[in-house]
């Protein structure tokens, strides 16, 4: 039987390690980033601490992605096992000389020539021709489903197979015992409408790179920006079938957390870890030090 307390501590330590690294990185270049903002005349009327706080939020959002991906990967390994959440995703056992410990994140190894302009055009056209349309009762959801990508995109893997081997970064990939799960993971909870098409096409391209039938792709977010339990209203819904192709907030965490740990308990673990890091004090001290208040 799984030891819940042991698993709980494992998850807490993952968050502790990754977010301690993140805060240290932010602290290292905070003054330089603040000084850049000081030269922005558009912010000249703002209080120094407001400006410094803005710099922190901007830095946190831009740098937190890798920390979150690393947390998600390590938590998924607790549930699915390290062998099923590899740093090198190699579904066709292609020969390579990569070393797992030299990689910062996960990569997919493929012999599909996904830089090919014709292939990229076909993937883009597939997305564009299957966009959602209308509102309310008249809304037609996106035709980009798990079944449609298998029918129309999977054959492209063979059509564009090459003699070369490529590596493609992936936010999160794991085998759940039945399917490979490939995710585009967003810490910010959504994408703006201008970035949504390219991010969806990136995800579809990785699906083609995988080139296997037992593969599913998802757009995932760490939290539901509309509130847990509410219908998510992100821009990506125009390009992927909702909710089939999405793992939003609680649904995402329930997919990777060990079943013995609920999403609600995970949020408590996360809060405990940040309190142990003394996050608020470190942030306030960093701001005060930058502003010469200490």
Helix content: 40-55%
Mind describing the biggest β-sheet?
A: 4 strands, mixed
User: Alpha-carbon distance between the termini?
Assistant: 51 Å
The low-pLDDT segments are none
Shape: globular
Percentage of residues in strands: 5-15%
The Cα radius of gyration reads: 21 Å
**Number of separate structural domains:** 2
Number of helices: 10
Secondary structure tally: strands: 7
Structural class: alpha/beta
Q: What's the arrangement of strands in the largest beta sheet?
A: 4-5-6-7
Taking all residues together, what is the mean pLDDT? Answer: 92
Note the run of SSEs as H and E. Answer: HHHEEHHHEEEHEEHHH
Summarize the structure.
This protein has 294 residues and is an alpha/beta fold. Helix content is 48%, strand content 14%. The chain has a four-stranded mixed beta sheet, with helices on both faces. A three-stranded mixed beta sheet has the order 1-2-3.
Question: Which features does this protein show?
Answer:
294 residues; alpha/beta; 2 domains; four-stranded mixed beta sheet; 10 helices; 48% helix
Could you walk me through the main structural features you see in this protein, from its secondary elements to its overall organization?
With 294 residues, the chain is of the alpha/beta class. The protein has 2 domains: 1-80 and 262-294; 85-260, no CATH class. It is built from 10 helices and 7 strands. The protein has helices at 4-28, 30-38, 48-80, 117-128, 146-152, 154-159, 196-210, 250-256, 263-277, 279-290, and strands at 88-89, 106-112, 161-170, 172-175, 180-186, 215-221, 246-248. The strands form 2 sheets. A 4-stranded mixed sheet has the order 4-5-6-7, sandwiched between helices. A hairpin with a 4-residue loop joins strand 4 (172-175) and strand 5. Helix 1 crosses helix 9 and helix 2 (30-38) packs across helix 3 (48-80).
